[in-house]
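Batch job 17 of 40 flagged for manual review because the log was empty.
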Amino acid sequence: AEADGRTSLVPGVVEAEYHTDEYRDMFEVAAEQLAERATGRDLSAAEINAYWMARARAWMAENPADAVRLLGKKALLFWTGLENSNNRDFADQAERFTPILRVFLWQLTFLMPFALLGLLFFRGRRAESGLIVSFIVVFWVAIAAFFVCSRFRQPAVALLLPYAAAGMVGALDSVRGRARPAGMILGVLAGLFVVTNHNLLDRIGVLDLSVPNAPFHRYNLAVMLDEEGDLEGAVREYRAAAATHPDDPRIDLNLGNALIKLGRVEEAVPHLDRAAAAIPSQAVSVNWNLGILALQAGRWDEAARRLGEVRRLQPQHPEAALARGTALLEGGRLEEASRELMAASQARPQDPRVLQALVLLATRQGDPERAAMLQAQLDGMGGR
């Protein structure tokens, strides 16, 4: 029901990216996770395939008109000039970074009508072209059965080139009176230019191209800029990505981290909180980082709250008890601080930072004897 004929995205892909092995495709992981979640058990590859095939057949049986409409849309998309990249928005990249490449984005807009004209009227003898035409038709049907992406269509484009040339020569010969009637050929050619023009089809409502054909394009650019150290540029691209995909927690996570690197912590907090809520596996690191930042800024209650969440989610976190105990101690919550620091002491009895915090705790509790004993122990470790 959510298929658009142009991408392979399914609900769960974003979540799957945080649970995938290094060399497993995230779409494969998403398909596996969703199928196993629905069935409540581990599935083999064959069972996962059967689950999705059954889902597809069930939807087509319940929505035959929509199924036919979607298939027709994909069959038409195959012949349009749309460069549907799925990963990169070629038009945006050409517009902003390499304007000279814009002209190459129009190649298929001119190629496809002439290729179809050649296939219809100028393909030559059946014995000579039958195998190639059959391959093109089979490729067209196979691509339309799934989704139309430029790189999947590319092998067929190579085989369409001689038919495009034949269509151009045939049209020219018709105008010169050497072939079929010029009026008929030019009329068909004009019609082919109309039905293969994706922009026109979008305007009249036959196709819906309002959703970007490369949904992760701005996000991918942001990651690239982030890795190159252009944090301001990365923030701009993350925000642009969020405008079209506001529910993508990866954007919130990376945008929040980039803002923290720029020192804009207050801007980062809501993004990181949304990411932690959407991606449970990131909750510990998000709360830890924000807790430490709050601790460094002297926001004791906020630090204690966030570090407490870390302790709840990961009780054996090696640093959380000490960090939270420090925040509670500085915030004057001595009883709670004592519990946390004792837990830290049990886990790391020889850590001088723990002893320093315990000395300060004993002093503030009005227990100079214990403070002196702990200080002597600390001095013996060379931790002054």
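Reviewer: the log was empty due to a logging misconfiguration, but the result itself is present. The radius of gyration is 31 Å. Unflagging and moving on to job 18.
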